[in-house]
Amino acid sequence: MSDHPLIRLSRKPALLVAGLMSGTSADGIDACLAEIREGDRGPVPRLIAHRTFDHDPELRALLLELGEVRAGGVPGPDRVEWVARANVALGEALGRAVRDIAAAAAVPLSSVDLIGSHGQTIRHLPAAGAIGALASRATLQIGEAAVIRELTGVPVVADFRVRDVAAGGLGAPLVPHVDRLLLSQPGKRRAAQNLGGIGNVTYLPDPSTSESLVAFDTGPANMVIDAVVRRITQGRETYDRDGARAARGTPARDLVEQIVAADAYHARKPPKTLGREEYGVAFVEDFVARCDARALSEDDRVATATWLTARATAESYRRWVLPRGLDELFVSGGGALNPTLLAMLAEAMPGVDVKTSAACGIPPLAKEALAFAVLAYELVHARPSNCPEATGAREPVVLGKLTL
Amino acid sequence: MSDHPLIRLSRKPALLVAGLMSGTSADGIDACLAEIREGDRGPVPRLIAHRTFDHDPELRALLLELGEVRAGGVPGPDRVEWVARANVALGEALGRAVRDIAAAAAVPLSSVDLIGSHGQTIRHLPAAGAIGALASRATLQIGEAAVIRELTGVPVVADFRVRDVAAGGLGAPLVPHVDRLLLSQPGKRRAAQNLGGIGNVTYLPDPSTSESLVAFDTGPANMVIDAVVRRITQGRETYDRDGARAARGTPARDLVEQIVAADAYHARKPPKTLGREEYGVAFVEDFVARCDARALSEDDRVATATWLTARATAESYRRWVLPRGLDELFVSGGGALNPTLLAMLAEAMPGVDVKTSAACGIPPLAKEALAFAVLAYELVHARPSNCPEATGAREPVVLGKLTL
Prior knowledge:
2 copies of one chain form a homodimer.
Chain A: H1 5-11, E1 14-21, E2 28-39, E3 42-54, H2 57-67, H3 79-104, E4 114-117, E5 120-125, E6 138-142, H4 145-152, E7 156-158, H5 161-166, H6 176-183, E8 190-195, E9 198-204, E10 214-220, H7 222-232, H8 244-248, H9 253-262, H10 281-293, H11 298-320, E11 328-332, H12 339-348, E12 353-356, H13 367-380, H14 388-391, E13 401-403
Parallel strand pairs in A: 1-4, 4-7, 8-11, 11-12
Antiparallel strand pairs in A: 1-2, 2-3, 5-6, 7-13, 8-9, 9-10
Helix pairs in contact in A: 2-3, 3-4, 7-11, 9-11, 11-12
């Protein structure tokens, strides 16, 4: 009975855990390897390695297609078959990413104890649908855990969001639990801002007070910038490397103010969440049409999209974060590698000390992957890992499903 | 640490387990409650209660729609959203079924230790697809475990098939492991025939010999009969109750011989598996057209579809079972409640003793649900539960995913 793998894992003083994240922009897989020990306040992770693996272009196209809403009548494949096959194809890519990061870190795969995999969100529908059986609130992540398990020989925890949705929550954000473990510090009021496809913030009040955590999606982050760069370059470039295009351009600030003012999302009280849908094809078409109307140059368009990200984020903070007081802001995600965006963020939030998560020891591209390694570790110990104050769930619940 | 629910479960001498099955015909949920003890050869289940819960018509229509292949261009909803919402809607129905069967058995929900849920197969694609990332072999069951867990408070094991597919297998049949536990007996050569939407057999050789188990899908079972009854009655009836229509009619035996002879599936060597697709809309259209050409009466059509099931099953046995010797045949599934079908089966297999699984203590409608209760129990003990000789998998693997 003590041979039971979960019993063995729950008794080890430290686990070697791989974390896997495939973000809304479907660029690739952020993978990390971390040692996680049991501390006084729960898990204490130490990052060993992290790396980003680009998706095969065919898989990326498949994931992006599934992420778009397509009513019937549009020519295309049987999308139910696509969901089934893409689930496995992404699982294969995720399994290879674990093998590759272990090899890169010179760690034998057999010494990896556990994998935590977020997978790819292809629908996030935390609000009730229109009719009958379709009314059920839902979220759907793919990236088959059984395939990862077979390719690695390592137990996998995956499919974290749906349990929070089942418990009445929005299923997002899930990183706040880990932000609290990593960043919460007496005497400090801190925020962790992730800039992936969508932006999200975790506000951590001074833990010596009784104030509660706040976390929510802040608006578009890299999604709109990436989409604009892809259109300008006919897909040759997929993002604004080092923010170079935005740095050369001049943002159309009044256009951005119009868009931010028109976005009813900002006024909604947290907890609240966004899907890829909100800033997808339709949003970008409208953005481009407005840039066309002003005959903006290519660089100006990228600068405008970048300023939009900064301003949307700042607008979220103005309403829901800054009134509570903020000492430090740690930025992570792909957007943290864009110095033009960071500078614009600092400009849009005067008085806030904006730095990347590297300042607290977490490389910006490793944080989300590390978070899902920690959530997997929590399941091994049968501990809840959602933050009801962030998701709106009825209660704390154990997130994820275990494949032995 | 000993508070860990899985550790607690793996130490209990007996578990109270609910089993849930939602078959390919999407009529409803077969639910059972069983006490499972640890015996010398593994789990020993004792059935406590079983019951079938009809699906809400709207949910049933949704599940049937998702089960059909629809290329793009056909008017309809966003099918990815349907997959996401149907997954949750079915999870809600499954969770209610557990609550209802516990209530019916006068067992407090809090004393149920574990739930094993098969879910609904909406795609079964164990063969590689045509191109690139779409080539991945796959299977897709829905019926969200996290929702079942929230509605019941009981840990859930679900999503059993995909691990076997990931291990190189067909992902079906999975019941043979349980058939062996329940039926294998020294000195006897037995077969367990399930007649659900699709038929499948587990052949259990005399365990005192070194012969190996054979298991495979045998062909259409209730799917074609049900579809014909639904067409005749414009959907007012969904199956041939007590086989009454078939008993009044006369089967067109030569037509059935043509169909069986033309079905290349029978000649394929096991392991082999079938999906809903093979005997779906296209097959039934063809069947009806041939009945039209002969101007068959309504009852004759149902009799012909019933004889087709009997003959297809017998043809499978003639090729792959009878040459090895067979003493007893136990029929389970909805088809076991159709006396006309049972009589036709006996006629099509002269010399074989055809009885229902009730003869060995298992009510025909409870067997599949009981099987998934047993598979869930096996995961709690971290034991493999696929039969590689039945699925073609590379090796025995632990099936299912655990939601705590």
